[in-house]
């Protein structure tokens, strides 16, 4: 395992800015990129903690990319880290959208841009599938039977019965909280 690098605000800003600059296709695409950068490369966050932070970011209102950046920034450098990561996350889309708005007519009719967007859609789908498999792998490695059952039931509820995603998030969050609290209590009883 490589040595953990010192957390600096400049490095955090440049890392998050770069991730945000090249994240196309929605918030979930940034999750594996953040894991690769902050867990695998910089070793600032442990993998399990990263998944927990992503779960918190996902269950909070707003864009997951911004929420994830806020939580990671806060975890690493407190309020200042959160503010630095917010700026680093929102600047690239702001810059890109400003440029596109000035050149909108050229982008709208460009076949090259259209083909590039179709190619990015395929890449985004692959990245999202990777995130799902990593989360499933985490549940299996931890032998979290309740998590696996909740995941399967949530999938069925959403895809078959069209249960509103907000209801699923609240219910699954409550089940996860109760499960974690009972597991912690059982662990403490075994130790004590």
Automatic annotation (TrEMBL):
Membrane protein topology class: Multi-pass membrane protein
Keywords for the protein's UniProt record, in alphabetical order: Cell membrane, Membrane, Transmembrane, Transmembrane helix
Compartments it resides in: Cell membrane
Ranges that cross the membrane: 12-33, 53-74, 80-103, 115-136, 148-178
GO MF entries: chromate transmembrane transporter activity
Keyword Transmembrane helix: yes
Family, as annotated: Belongs to the chromate ion transporter (CHR) (TC 2.A.51) family.
Protein name: Chromate transporter
Organism: Holdemania massiliensis
Lineage, uppermost ranks: Bacteria, Bacillati, Bacillota, Erysipelotrichia, Erysipelotrichales
């Amino acid at each position: 395992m490589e040595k953990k690098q010192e957390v600096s605000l400049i490095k955090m800003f440049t890392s998050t800015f770069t991730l945000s600059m090249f994240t196309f296709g929605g918030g979930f695409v940034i999750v594996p990129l953040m894991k690769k950068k902050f867990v695998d490369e910089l070793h600032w966050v442990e993998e399990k903690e990263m998944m927990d932070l992503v779960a918190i970011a996902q269950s909070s209102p707003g864009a997951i990319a911004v929420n994830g950046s806020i939580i990671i920034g806060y975890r690493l450098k407190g309020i200042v880290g959160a503010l630095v990561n917010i700026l680093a996350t929102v600047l690239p889309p702001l810059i890109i959208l400003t440029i596109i708005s000035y050149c909108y007519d050229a982008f709208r009719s460009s076949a090259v841009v259209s083909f590039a967007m179709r190619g990015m859609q395929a890449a985004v789908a692959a990245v999202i599938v990777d995130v799902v498999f990593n989360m499933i792998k985490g549940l299996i490695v931890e032998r979290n039977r309740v998590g696996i059952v909740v995941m399967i039931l949530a999938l069925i509820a959403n895809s078959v019965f069209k249960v509103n995603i907000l209801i699923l998030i609240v219910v699954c969050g409550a089940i996860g909280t109760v499960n974690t609290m009972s597991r912690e209590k059982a662990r403490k009883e075994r130790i004590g």
